[in-house]
Amino acid sequence: MTDTAEAGSHGGRREIARRALEEVCSGRDPGGLTAVYHPEFVDHVNAREYRGHDGARRSVALYLAIFPDLRFVVEEQLSEDNRVASRWTLHGTHRGRPVTLRGIVISRFEDGRIIEDWAASDTLEIVRQLGVWRSALLLVKHRALLRAR
């Protein structure tokens, strides 16, 4: 079976979506970004939006700046047609405080790669875990988190 044929199967798409989160977005395989994301990729993350490979790199860099030991774990996946839904858990540490955040992303595939992600997580959970003071400092340092696009 060719790589394209595998990527077109439900199992192949699930594996690509898992690799995108656990390897690329966790910062363990930044070189794999172009293999899992389409050049015209659009990433909708809560109120933020990133476009293309450069946008995906900026998104990953922002998460790694906040959580240098960032790790995503895919807990469950469902697939239908050209979409994969992945329920994930983010683990990381910010300024000495451990954080666990849960979320979900729906990935749409085209030509064997992810062309669009719709991700949602409870960002108030970060405030609960970090506390108000650390959260305020985080927003001051990473102002991009305040801008909707």
Structural overview:
By secondary structure, this protein is an alpha+beta fold. It has one domain: Nuclear Transport Factor 2, Chain: A (Roll), CATH 3.10.450.50. About 40% of the residues lie in helices and about 40% in strands. It is built from six helices and six strands, in the order αααββαββββαα. The chain has helices at about 5, 10-25, 35, 50-65, 125-130, 130-140; strands at about 35-45, 50, 70-80, 85-95, 95-110, 115-120. It has a six-stranded mixed beta sheet with strand order 2-1-6-5-4-3. The longest helix has 16 residues, at about 10-25. It starts with a helix and ends in an 8-residue tail after the last helix.
Describe, in short, the structure shown.
The protein is an alpha+beta fold and 149 residues long.
Please identify the structural class as seen in this structure: alpha+beta
Shape: globular
Q: How much of the polypeptide forms β-strand, as a percent range?
A: 35-45%
Annotation, overall tally of beta strands: 6
The helicity comes to 25-40%
Biggest sheet character:
6 strands, mixed
SSE sequence, one letter per element: HHHEEHEEEEHH
Computed Rg: 15 Å
CATH architecture: Roll
Number of helices: 6
Question: What is the CATH T-level topology?
Answer: Nuclear Transport Factor 2, Chain: A
| Top-tier CATH class | Alpha Beta
What distance separates the N and C termini?
A: 40 Å
Total tally of structural domains? 1
Task: Provide the residue-averaged pLDDT.
Answer: 89
Within the largest sheet, what's the order of strands? 2-1-6-5-4-3
- Poorly predicted residue ranges: 1-5
